[in-house]
Write a structure and sequence with these properties.
Length: about 475
């Protein structure tokens, strides 16, 4: 069976370690890695004085991880710099926040070269290599320069930016050209894929782009697919029905004292639209005073990328705004907005999702958004909550039965909230059923199989057996 090598900036803890942040991606990748005796390679998360290239191997629950420490300058220029100060804002339509520093671009190239050099001895000619996300776009090219001829796939978890914004990146052509060294590129949605093709047609006039998603540029051929990631639905449903989740649900209901819960769960990131969301809730309370003291918004937002200034700024803004909303509407017996900066284990999250009447998943831009899918999976089929979802999340392409909203408009958010709060049971059930059918069908195992089947296509050996 073809051995799989997964490469990503962060290496998730192997299944079984019981970490609170264990997501569906780690579950699915771990099962494929275990089946093929594969390796998950990436950054350890540690900083050292000088890069050594020494690999730390660990084996846990049948999954081998191989991690390297990065030096402080690498972390600053590659991770905090090019990945999170340049590419992340640019890929999420925030060119105003993007910083274009030569040292960042240099650090990005250096770390990608270091990753390639370090992982090279691990690669055998039979391996299937799968690189993830914007941190590692040039890795395939770095591996090719070192003689690797294996099938190499790349999956982008973020949106692909619109053409005119990407042109603001001084090295845009070099970045995109590196992608032609992969055999297959996966995007979360058709919208991101179309945006990529538009860039290629405009900027690489010499490229031959066929209808079936094959691009030829000189000697190189790459296929492109839209392949939306899912969650481990079965696992999340089981988690939502666990005793721990039930306890969290009951605790939450008790604290609500008969009020309807609206919930939001996001990394504290400016792309998640939290400011606009808070304004939408404020608008609901102002325009529909009948909901005052009848609802409660719980926003869970653990801090993320705290060394980056734009993240410090958004945190300050949300601190002020949440204080303002509570100051304006709270009574001695009611706090309208519960704003919590910490993470929860998956069962507790699922229990809180199940206790809520509606969820606000309203990013301004998002590659996919897994919280939307987790929210649906956690619901009680007899009494499901309503998903309010941004039109600008990749998930909106698959989840049309949600209440789709423009996340920039507080009025639209307030209207959707009012609609959700008064939605009859039969409508909630029929919307949920349609959403759940998709979340079950296109789960993380389906995603993994679809991508790997396409990557391994040439030699006709199906990789479906990789997936449990
Ligand atoms: P992103 O990858 O941009 O953070 P996603 O919505 O695709 O956004 O994925 C976020 C993942 O992190 C989901 O699995 C979600 O459940 C998890 N998560 C987010 N916030 C928390 C939290 N406070 N506690 C636990 N898990 C969280
Ligand atoms: O989903 C996008 C993503 O950037 C992942 O690649 C990443 O692991 C996650 O968000 C959290 O971000 P970070 O790894 O920077 O904490």
């Amino acid at each position: 069976m073809t051995r799989l090598i997964v490469v990503s900036n962060r290496v998730s803890p192997p299944v079984g370690e019981g970490k609170a942040n264990q997501g569906g991606l780690a579950v699915a990748l771990s099962s494929a890695l275990r089946e093929t005796n594969g390796i998950w390679f990436g950054w350890s998360g540690n900083e050292i004085d000088a890069f050594t290239g020494q690999i730390n191997f660990a084996r846990n629950d049948g999954v081998t991880t191989a991690t390297v420490d990065l030096e402080a300058q690498d972390v600053e220029e590659y991770y905090n710099g090019f990945a999170n100060r340049t590419l992340w804002p640019l890929f999420h339509d925030r060119v105003d926040l993007a910083e274009f520093e030569r040292t960042f671009a240099g650090g990005y190239e250096r770390v990608n070269a270091r990753f390639a050099e370090t992982m090279l001895p691990l690669v055998t000619s039979e391996d299937l290599i799968w690189v993830h996300d914007y941190h590692l776009i040039p890795l395939g090219s770095e591996l090719r320069q070192r003689g690797v001829t294996n099938h190499i796939g790349f999956f982008l978890h973020t949106p692909w930016p619109v053409l005119r914004l990407l042109l603001a990146l001084p090295s845009h052509r070099q970045l995109v050209e590196a992608l032609f060294d992969y055999d297959l590129i996966g995007f979360q949605s058709q919208t991101w894929l179309d945006s990529f093709l538009l860039y290629v047609r405009e900027q690489f006039a010499e490229a031959d782009v066929t209808e079936d998603g094959t691009i030829r540029l000189g000697e190189r051929t790459v296929r492109v697919v839209a392949c939306p990631i899912g969650i481990d639905t079965r696992e999340f449903v089981a988690s939502a029905r666990s005793e721990e989740a039930e306890q969290a649900r009951l605790d939450m209901l008790k604290s609500l004292d008969g009020r309807a819960l609206i919930i939001g769960v996001d990394r504290l990131d400016y792309s998640k639209g939290l400011e606009q969301r808070f304004h939408g809730y404020e608008r609901l309370l102002a325009d529909h005073p009948e909901y005052q003291e009848k609802v409660s918004l719980l926003q869970i937002a653990p801090p993320s990328r705290e060394n980056v200034e734009s993240y410090q700024d958004i945190r300050r803004q949300l601190d002020a705004l949440s204080g303002h909303i509570n100051g304006e509407f709270a009574t001695a017996l009611w706090v309208p907005l519960r704003y919590v900066n910490r993470g929860y284990d998956r069962a507790s999250l699922a229990g809180m999702f199940r206790a809520s009447r509606a969820a606000l998943v309203t990013p301004l831009r998002d590659g996919m958004n897994l919280v939307a899918k987790e929210y649906v999976a956690a619901q009680d089929p007899d009494d499901p909550g309503v998903l309010i979802l941004s039109r600008f999340a990749g998930a909106a392409e698959q989840m049309k039965e949600a209440l789709l909203v423009n996340p920039f408009s507080p009025e639209e958010l307030a209207d959707a909230l009012a609609q959700a709060l008064r939605m009859p049971l039969a409508e909630r059930q029929s919307r949920w059923k349609a959403l759940m059918a998709n979340v079950e069908r296109e789960d993380v195992h389906w995603w993994l199989r679809s991508f790997l089947d396409a990557l391994d296509d040439d030699d006709g050996e199906p990789t479906a057996s990789l997936v449990a």
